[in-house]
Write a structure and sequence with these properties.
Largest sheet: none
Number of helices: 7
Distance between the termini: 22 Å
Number of strands: 0
Shape: elongated
Structural class: mainly alpha
Oligomer: single chain
Length: 148
């Protein structure tokens, strides 16, 4: 791979770190008090209840709605863990797969919101590209520790 400045491995590391910063910002900008008091799950429940696909309504009602407090923490701290893991490159392939999964969950839940679709699709695309490009080869704890 020919580049003007960065090596190929470094280009994939930039994508990985950028995706990590995106997840970290998703966590950072949340109003934690409102989110953990149920505001985030209430907002998502409203979206799921109006969803055109029955499996989304049923899945949300089965998995999230019965445990709103726990799910609020799971979502928020999953975003934080993904962000930090991708930024420092720790357990990167696992973090990229989880990032892809969470982006696709958000994509399906927010299928009616055109603005959200762009963000979710781009985050999913970056996760796939960084995964296929072995984005933990450079600037990562995985590389330092000889993991993967």
């Amino acid at each position: 791979m020919q580049t003007m400045w960065l090596s190929g491995a470094e280009v994939f590391a930039v994508l990985r770190i950028g995706l990590g910063l995106w997840w970290f910002e998703s966590w950072r900008h949340k109003d934690k008090k409102t989110w953990f008091d149920g505001g985030g799950v209430e907002w998502a429940a409203d979206i799921a209840a109006k969803h055109r696909w029955g499996f989304v309504q049923a899945g949300f009602a089965t998995v999230v709605k019965p445990r709103p407090k726990i799910m609020a923490y799971v979502v928020a701290y999953a975003e934080l863990a993904l962000g930090l893991g991708l930024i420092v490159g720790l357990l990167t392939p696992i973090a990229l797969l989880c990032s892809l999964a969470l982006s696709l969950i958000y994509l399906v839940l927010m299928i009616h919101d055109v603005a959200e679709q762009g963000q979710n699709l781009m985050m999913a695309l970056i996760a796939v590209v960084a995964l296929l490009g072995v984005g933990w080869q450079a600037w990562s704890l995985d590389a330092v520790l000889g993991l993967f």
